Amino acid sequence: MIEEPGVTCPYCGETITIMVDTTAGSQRTIEDCFVCCQPIELTIEIGPAGEIEMITAESDDA
Ligand SMILES: [Zn+2]
Asked: Domain locations in the chain?
């Protein structure tokens, strides 16, 4: 199951759409913002029913 949630870029504040494969379970990934091209560190929590419970988008400099 591929979901396409929107997340807010921590660098430029734009909302971007990412692709999440919910069958892969909870995951951490780096996605380049396609507005400002900065690497966004995404933490994606997948619930027991395979739904997206939470997405955290952080800058990669922490
Ligand atoms: Zn951005």
From this structure: 2-59
What is the rounded CA–CA span in Å between residue 10 and residue 7? 9
pTM to 2 decimals?
0.88
Give me the amino acid identity at 9: C
The residues whose Cβ lies within 5 A of ligand 1, an ion, are 9, 11-12, 33, 35-36
Which token pair is 27? 């995951």
Ligand 1 centroid distance, CA of 14 (Å): 6
Tokens found for residue 51: 């739904």
pLDDT digits (tens, 9 = 90+) for 43-61: 999 999 999 999 999 998 7
